[in-house]
Design goal:
Blueprint lengths: L9 H14 L3 H8 L3 H15 L11 H34 L1
Amino acid sequence: MSQQRKTFDPSFKLQVVQLIKEQGPSVAQVCRDMSLGETAVRRWLRQFAAEQSGQAGIGKPLTAEQQRIRQLEGEVRQLRQDNDLLKKASAFFARELR
């Protein structure tokens, strides 16, 4: 039988990271107390550190700033695609009018 993989929302991950950063317990202690995997918590810590230094990090963003950045990057990507499509359409219709 395979185990169901646990999923955690970004706000919970951020709370765990802040607990470790602010109160100073070891990662192993927090994992035992909260029944979490050590590997996952260490990954959250790396991701938080990456986000704090301005890098994108891996996985779903933890901080609100990184969530907003990802949203804006998606909007920029969509707008560029729309702009490229409009350029192609205007070039097509410009040829048709000649």
